[in-house]
Amino acid sequence: MREEAIAKVAVIDLGGQYAHLIARRIREQGVYAELYYPWEADEAVSESSAIVLSGGPSSVWESRHDTVVEKALALDKPILGICYGHQLLAKVLGGTVGPSPSPEFGPTLVEVLRAESILQGFPSRIKVWMSHNDAVLEPPEASKVLARSEGSPVAAFSLNDRIFGVQWHPEVHHSELGIELIDNWLRIAKIPREWRPGDLIQDLIDYVRGTVGDSIALSAVSGGVDSTVATVIAHRALGDRLHAVIIDHGFHPAGEVKRAVKVLRELGINLKVIDASGDFYAALEGVEDPEEKRRVFGGVYARILEREAKQVGAEYLIQGTIYPDVIESGGRKGADKIKSHHNVAGLPKRFGLRLVEPLRLFYKDEVRVIGEKLGIPEEVLYKQPVPGPALAIRVEGRITPELVEIARKANRIVAEEVEKRGLARQLWQYFAVVTRSRATGVKGDKRAYGIVIAVRIVESRDAMTANPYRAEWGLLEAIASRITSEIPEATRVVYDITSKPPGTIEWE
Ligand code: XMP
């Protein structure tokens, strides 16, 4: 794809929770950015025009990342160190790093000493987001101190207009002028603004065509934005050699399969519905553990795809994997597995189809831009994500068709109430979970011992972190009242107020 040829910033992820955000902010400024792990430093440095060293939980005294910095310095490329990256740079360049006179966590006032270079145009004081115990106490020789705070005598420095460090996190929204700082850095580093995902459609089509050659490809649509966009690209690339299917596994939210068929038909794609709910229920019978559910689900899914591929003679499978899926599912070597999302790591090792993932380098908002240019309707582009195993992981523990139907009804009620208030676009996900808990209620005139339904509504930018939505009481009341009156088996509704981390978005 073309991003091989355009300027790239390597964000070396030193373990900080915001590394993804740094890459996104840079991309928002029109420059392609990619995450690398410290052990990929050689590649990162040689493949990129500039380097960011992210924050991280380590202390510079462990010094296990010194070689990463040395490698970055050796090729004389522009470098920006953030938080731990800032301290590491300062230390390797001969500055002094030690315990901060006043460790800073959260909103912090910074005094701008020189409103120049990366701080060009900044006022004399700004409020930023900090999170550190150590601090740079003395700057590296020949460097300029640009800013300081109570706990950071050297809160920002520059060296030869090539190397920069900032103690705070410009990538988080809580930091004032964070975008401006990143924009200033990209300008000083002379990185051309060439990243425009919406202009890459032809490259993506060429990539699919080049990879699949004269063969036939299968595309599995889930109903969501990623697989729809990937399928439309593949259809443009392959025409009749693309065989698009949606597997009706029996766990889709209400109306999902029908809508997918309609939307793709309007885009000139004939979507075949494979009814396989019997296979999925049979395989999942008695399975309780969430990861086991995903594994079994992924296994059946793969088997059905292989069977279908055989029938139509397909050798390739188009998948709508996006960048955070690749990272979160441990798609890069050495990464921790968080959850085995079926669209990446959930496929069995011996899978008979070769994967083509045209969107694997894009963030969700970039996929939406591409989708918009492809003429995909807004209702799909801004639809909330549904996990691959869908309602199979929204019934806690063992699944039965009856419990799945309850989950389907409860999810539909939550969606209707949220959507009719016009809240959908501002929320990441809103759904219901059929919990394992049971509670007493009064139904009609009788006591009933029924199901506890949990409602989860979250705000998020990319699913890596999420906040529970501070829902207006009327919305929650309407949901609770409808669930308990329209679903006879439900006696209680509870609202989940857990953030991610420490929770995850889904319950399973
Ligand atoms: P968690 O629960 O890990 O979810 O905070 C993050 C995002 O991923 C979705 N999710 C999945 N997507 N297969 C998928 O394709 C899965 O097994 C899966 N599990 C969670 C989840 O809905 C949220 O958007």
Task: Tell me what the structure shows.
This protein is of the alpha/beta class. It folds into three domains: 187 residues, Class I glutamine amidotransferase (GATase) domain (Rossmann fold, 3-Layer(aba) Sandwich); 185 residues, HUPs (Rossmann fold, 3-Layer(aba) Sandwich); 96 residues, 2-Layer Sandwich (GMP Synthetase, Chain A, domain 3). Helix content is 33%, strand content 24%. The protein contains 15 helices and 18 strands. It has a nine-stranded mixed β-sheet, sandwiched between helices. A five-stranded parallel β-sheet has the order 12-11-10-13-14, sandwiched between helices. The longest helix has 23 residues. The protein is globular, with a radius of gyration of 25 Å. About 3% of the residues have low confidence. Bound molecules: xanthosine-5'-monophosphate (XMP). The site of xanthosine-5'-monophosphate (XMP) has 15 residues, from loops.
